[in-house]
Amino acid sequence: MVELVNLKTFKLISNYILVKPEANFNVVAIDGPEGKKIELTIISDGEREACHYSISGTVIKRPDEIFYFNKYSDEAGSMEQRQFASSIKASAGVKCDHPYQEGDKIYYNYNVQLQCEEENRLVETEEYGICMLIQVDSIFGVANGDEIIPINGYVFFTREQQESEYLSESGLTIIREVKGYEKNFATVVSASTPPMGYLDGGTIGPDTYEKGDKIIVDKRFGYKMAYDLHADKLKSVEVCFHKQIVAKLELA
Known about the structure:
With about 250 residues, the protein is mostly beta strands. It has helices at about 75, 80-90, 110-120, 165-170, 230, and strands at about 5, 15-20, 25-30, 35-40, 55-60, 95, 105-110, 120-125, 130-135, 140-145, 145-150, 155-160, 170-175, 185-190, 195-200, 215-220, 225, 235-240, 245-250. The strands form four sheets. Strands 1-8-9-2-5-7-10-11 form an eight-stranded mixed β-sheet, with helices on one face. The model is unreliable at about 45-50, about 160-170 and about 175-180 (pLDDT under 50). The chain is flat. The chain has one domain.
């Protein structure tokens, strides 16, 4: 059962925000019998399951502050086991800027909606109907006019289809040795700055990426931002995390 909440008194804790989901990019409505509309989920041959496509939503409410916890900090060393576990669960996964406000449009993976349904993180409001409670570090982009700005350490890219021909004809050389990876060559569309820190105290690394940079993405990662039929200028654009890029290429 979905709980009805009053937005005026509803408090958000930790790293969750309240989002009103929009229509899925990979769902299309067609005319049905008696003037009714039928929604179809579209999956092309060779494409991944629909759960790998992302959707967007409007920020309804965000927490006053976002909690970050480093398990190697001095504070963590003095905590009791239960308090330590609670802090780990409550923490955002990466520490970075969150430049969106209530009313802004954000983008996140389709899996987020499935997880909200499975974990009972759906609430109903009188003003907006059914909304989702999603974690702030699951957001990969925020709308800025006609642009989508990557955040949270995510990179937007287009994947190259002919890897061997691409390398031999372009004159690109790998500037970092790469072993043990399945590889996909790609071009950066847009990239956020690396997050400032991780839950485990590590960092993503010093690499920053600009539009047009040539990269190698671990083939196990990356998912489409939007389904091709509805993607318009986002067609073929994929999303990955900084650490899923295994090499950067430069002109010889």
